[in-house]
Amino acid sequence: MSRTIAIVEDEPAIRANYVDALTRYGHRVVAFANRPDAQQAFALQLPDLVIIDVGLGEEPEGGFDLCRELRARSATLPILFLTARDSDFDVISGLRLGADDYLTKDISLPQLTARVQALFRRTEALRAPQARETVIALRGLRLEAERMRVTWNDEVVPLTVTEFWMVHALAHRPGHVKSREQLMREAQIVVDDATVTSHIKRMRKKFVAIDPAFDEIDTVHGAGYRWRS
């Protein structure tokens, strides 16, 4: 099935390379050189996945602004940063805004396409029809796997794809400690420990925004995290 990938990148040569590589994998690729052009197109229809550079033309953080806008429109749209900016501050900023992954431009094209395919596999796996719906219900939590839907006290928690899989990994075996490496494996991401920590912090904030008393995710120092049993 052909999916539409949008690339927002201000460097023409780099943009062309990404378009060529992803087109060869059978995707429909649309490319934009700046945030206004991308915004105009996305207002008509959202793509299936977006790849964004942080600095866009005269906007040093235009990619962050675009990510914020896209995440406000869709909690599940896969958003991937691909940028030369690799400071911890930038990575954490991107993830806090709701990106599913943050890659630097030294990544090879085969690695990039593998990350894109992994994001698509994760979203499609949960949309596939199942004989019966998989539901995890624990205190205020209700997680519907096939719908990729999480509620807390009957209110929807707007999780990204990566956050959903991390909650799923923790909640399907409450009380069991998951190391950062296990969470990365189950969420199908490869990042450093600080990035996993940033994902966990953002997940907690989304639950706390619904319920200030939320305290289900324990940090087990030196070991990882667990959903309270």
TrEMBL record:
DNA-binding region: 133-229
PTM-bearing positions, type 4-aspartylphosphate: 53
Domain of life of the native organism: Bacteria
Domain Response regulatory stretches: 4-120
Pfam family, one: Response_reg
Domain OmpR/PhoB-type, chain residue ranges per copy: 133-229
CDD domains, A to Z: REC_OmpR, trans_reg_C
Classification via SMART domains: REC, Trans_reg_C
Keywords: DNA-binding, Phosphoprotein, Transcription, Transcription regulation, Two-component regulatory system
Gene Ontology MF terms: phosphorelay response regulator activity; transcription cis-regulatory region binding
Keyword DNA-binding: yes
Keyword Ribonucleoprotein on entry: no
One term under GO cellular component: cytosol
Annotated GO biological process: regulation of DNA-templated transcription
Name of the protein in its database record: Proteobacterial dedicated sortase system response regulator
Organism, as annotated: Denitratimonas tolerans
